[in-house]
Design goal:
two-stranded parallel ribbon; globular; 8 helices
């Protein structure tokens, strides 16, 4: 959720500054909450293939770093924005790098960008970013800081709470009920 939301925010920031912005992922999206986000928030993300990549001359990476996945090695990233810790043996090289491991979510960093640029997030983007912060901080049970809380409070004003509830409820698949039932019996 944090990566999807952060990608949406970066797209919003770049949308009037570049010719075209597309969202892509290297992994298959199959987590129920990610699929619900894509459906309810109308996120248009495609699988990154060489054919798709050939249509772009710049690449940005959010909520990750180039050494996190072998498929990233074929790309020279212009932008890397992340909240995961830096790896001293894998320095990040890009024209713009912002890595803040003290933050609970990359969505917080992107929310700060939107706020500082005077770009008010619409309800879908606010909902995505809010959920990104919620999941990566595990509802503020993991490491977080005041910036995460400020971003969450700011986004709460614009987020669609009904859609957020649908996404949160989607975290469980119907077929999992058999496992819960089995666990209860035992």
């Amino acid at each position: 959720p944090d990566a999807l939301a952060s990608a949406m925010a970066l797209k919003r920031i770049l949308s009037r500054r570049v010719q075209h912005v597309g969202l892509a992922q290297v992994n298959e999206i199959n987590r129920p909450d990610n699929l619900a986000m894509i459906r309810y928030l109308h996120i248009n993300s495609r699988r990154l293939t060489p054919t798709l990549a050939a249509q772009y001359d710049r690449f940005a990476l959010v909520d990750s770093q180039p050494h996190h996945h072998p498929d990233f090695s074929s790309y020279a990233f212009s932008v890397v924005i992340d909240h995961h810790p830096l790896s001293p043996e894998n320095p990040v090289r890009a024209d713009f790098v912002e890595i803040k491991p003290e933050y609970g979510a990359t969505s917080t960093i992107l929310t700060e960008y939107l706020y500082n640029l005077g770009l008010r997030p619409g309800k879908f983007l606010a909902t995505a970013l809010l959920y990104g912060i919620k999941t990566d901080t595990r509802s503020f049970e993991r490491n977080f800081q005041d910036a995460d809380i400020k971003a969450f409070r700011y986004l709460s004003k614009s987020a669609d709470q009904m859609i957020l509830r649908k996404i949160v409820r989607s975290e469980f698949r119907l077929e999992w009920l058999n496992y819960f039932s089995e666990a209860m019996r035992k």
